[in-house]
Recover the amino acids of this structure.
């Protein structure tokens, strides 16, 4: 008996959470997939009706805007946050005296919720309250900075706020990575008289590849599920110019009573996540098997 | 021994009283989203009256999202087989819920109290599902109001506009004088509110009915609709550059403070004026938006099928009280709307409410009493949402009116 318990203890302990994950994650993904193939409106219905919801989704200019916005927001957010984070990390890595304090300052935005970030930036970017009004108050009467209310530029204000929030976190990740590079190699390079920028570009950064991958995965899932930032910052406006798939899904499910549309847009979002995560999982599993 | 007999007797008496109590005792669990100051006060009136008639009221207020959160809570309750006794639902959503087979029949109360003759015909139709009564109306908000700062109009020699051309002329004049002509908040539902008043004003009630209620494809792509979008484009020039995302009450405050001259908004805006101590006719002027007709937004309670005599009795009592003349008068005076029943004495109401009631009666006779599409009275959520998407996309970009009309007919077809 004891023997049996010993052998099976890990399975017994893991079983409840395994069952919970199966039901509440994969079970509900399956449920959503099913509902996305029906004509559900106010309440879920279960008679299948082929791909009607996906056809409607394809015909919806609003969902198209949401997907384009996701592409713009995702790309810019991930690239800028990573570049800025790396730059900050390298600058902090120069053995400066107040590193602890500075690191904390840059990391702090991460402690705020996206709602707070969004609301603060909404005020900063508001032409009548924030930067534009301030600079005008200094006497530059022609100064204009109205991205927040300009429907072509509004999505970039979302990028701005998101980068401000997350680049400190990316900096911390990269700083840990920089510190983990073997000191001996760097010293050897310095003895050979190789300039610092070459040390970074040829030795340190390439050896940090796994950190880049982790940072990318973290930022990518932040970008795809972005919802609260948009709600707080622009409310999806002007018009629906800053809609993202998550806000589209919310509007369909909870304000419009169109559960079928909501389910199908959720499935599309999940596919986007898969296309990013699956190659990552694949490469992870492959290195383990080697 | 004596005391034993006495206590037994009293225990039996208590039990008997309890049983009698359970049988005829009206109880109601009411799900609503009236949670802000004035609204909460209004709903408390109903609560008190319900208690005064011997009922037990279980309040279930759900704040947030203009009723979205309440809708979500309601769906969860109904799906789990535990529907509330009554819930605040309006417009075609009542029929949508009826189609799910979860609404109760309150025809006995409605017929006993002659609702059919007390309500304007088109509003009565919203309260009926397949020939039976399934909901009780609380109030009538008029949507097609234009509010103005009286002082600014007088200073610039402007009369309240009665056609959209007059409105445009007045706006040009105000703009030249350095005043923002139209206070507007760039949120989709506010864009839709302005749009529907323009459609009603330019096309008339018949066109409004064809386009925004029956969704007739010909009406949606007609020249009248193009003209409506043209007018929206013109009006885009009359709002200040910072209008995006502004809440409606901030826009109202702009009119109050004299920053802007006009606002197009339903009569809940009146509450803002009155709360700031402004007097109708002196500090601000109310008038219907240019053109004939009346757009209504009616709040109502739908009754759900529930088990138990107490709850059924509660529903009947609730329905009766909601349509009762005292509640309709007190509630609507608090809320800024007008009673749904037409026989209430309006002498205690303000000037704007009296205009609203008189217009409701006359448009009801003339057949131009129309449901507001922007406030969920005319269409299912998916359809009105699709129209609003186009309206707000057009208003916030440089899309041409022809493009907008094409997009509109596609979006409507796609939403069916």
């Amino acid at each position: 008996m004891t023997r049996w318990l010993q052998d099976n203890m890990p399975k017994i302990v893991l079983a409840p959470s395994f069952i919970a994950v199966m039901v509440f994650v994969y079970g509900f993904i399956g449920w959503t997939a099913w509902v996305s193939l029906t004509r559900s409106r106010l309440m879920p219905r279960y008679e299948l009706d082929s791909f009607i919801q996906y056809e409607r989704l394809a015909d919806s200019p609003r969902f198209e805007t949401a997907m384009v916005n996701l592409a713009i927001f995702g790309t810019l957010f991930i690239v800028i946050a990573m570049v800025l984070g790396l730059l900050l990390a390298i600058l902090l890595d120069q053995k400066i005296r107040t590193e602890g304090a500075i690191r904390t300052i840059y990391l702090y935005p991460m402690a705020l919720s996206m709602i707070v970030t969004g609301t603060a930036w909404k005020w900063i970017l508001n032409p009548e309250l924030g930067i534009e009004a301030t600079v005008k108050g200094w006497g530059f009467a022609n100064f204009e900075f109205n991205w927040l209310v300009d429907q072509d530029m509004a999505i970039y204000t979302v990028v701005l706020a998101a980068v401000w929030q997350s680049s400190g976190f990316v900096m911390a990740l990269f700083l840990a990575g920089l510190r983990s590079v073997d000191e001996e190699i760097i010293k050897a390079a310095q003895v050979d008289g190789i300039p610092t920028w070459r040390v970074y570009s040829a030795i340190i950064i390439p050896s940090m590849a796994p950190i880049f991958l982790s940072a990318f995965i973290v930022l990518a899932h932040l970008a795809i599920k972005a919802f609260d930032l948009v709600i707080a910052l622009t409310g999806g406006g002007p018009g629906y110019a800053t809609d993202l798939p998550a806000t589209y899904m919310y509007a369909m499910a909870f304000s419009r009573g169109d559960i079928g549309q909501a389910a199908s847009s959720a499935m599309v979002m999940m596919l986007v996540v898969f296309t990013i995560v699956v190659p990552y999982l694949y490469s992870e599993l492959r290195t383990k098997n080697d | 021994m004596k005391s034993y007999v006495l206590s037994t007797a009293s225990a039996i008496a208590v039990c008997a009283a309890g049983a009698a109590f359970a049988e005829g005792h009206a109880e109601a669990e009411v799900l609503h989203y009236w949670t802000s100051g004035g609204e909460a006060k209004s709903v408390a009136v109903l609560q008190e009256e319900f208690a005064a008639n011997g009922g037990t009221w279980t309040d279930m207020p759900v704040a947030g999202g203009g009723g979205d959160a309440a809708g979500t809570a309601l769906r969860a309750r109904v799906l789990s087989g535990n529907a509330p006794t009554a819930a605040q639902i309006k417009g075609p959503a009542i029929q949508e819920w009826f189609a799910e087979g979860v609404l109760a029949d309150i025809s006995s109360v409605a017929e006993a109290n002659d609702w059919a003759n007390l309500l304007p015909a088109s509003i009565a139709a919203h309260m009926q599902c397949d020939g039976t009564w399934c909901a009780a109306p609380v109030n009538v908000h008029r949507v097609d109001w234009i509010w103005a700062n009286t002082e600014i109009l007088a200073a610039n020699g402007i009369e309240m506009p009665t056609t959209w051309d007059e409105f445009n002329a007045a706006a040009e004049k105000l703009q030249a004088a350095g005043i923002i002509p139209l206070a507007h908040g760039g949120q989709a539902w506010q864009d839709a509110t302005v749009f529907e008043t323009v459609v009603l004003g330019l096309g008339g009630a018949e066109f409004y009915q064809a386009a925004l209620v029956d969704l007739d494809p010909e009406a949606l792509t007609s020249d009248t609709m193009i003209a409506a979008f043209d007018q929206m484009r013109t009006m885009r020039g009359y709002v200040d550059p910072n209008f995006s995302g502004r809440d409606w009450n901030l826009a109202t405050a702009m009119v109050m403070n004299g920053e802007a001259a006009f606002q197009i908004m339903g009569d809940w805006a009146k509450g803002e004026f009155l709360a700031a101590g402004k007097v109708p006719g002196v500090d601000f002027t109310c008038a219907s938006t240019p053109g004939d007709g009346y757009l209504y937004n009616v709040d109502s309670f739908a009754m759900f099928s529930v088990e138990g005599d107490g709850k059924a009795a509660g529903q009947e009592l609730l329905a009766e009280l909601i349509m009762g003349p005292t509640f309709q008068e007190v509630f609507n005076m608090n809320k800024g709307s007008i009673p749904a029943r037409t026989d209430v004495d309006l002498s205690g109401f303000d000037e704007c409410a009296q205009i609203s009631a008189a217009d409701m009666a006359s448009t009801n006779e003339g057949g131009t009493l129309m449901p507001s599409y922007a406030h969920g009275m005319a269409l299912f959520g998916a359809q009105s949402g699709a129209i609003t998407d186009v309206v707000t996309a057009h208003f916030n970009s440089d899309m041409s009116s022809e493009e907008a009309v094409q997009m509109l007919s596609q979006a409507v077809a796609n939403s069916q």
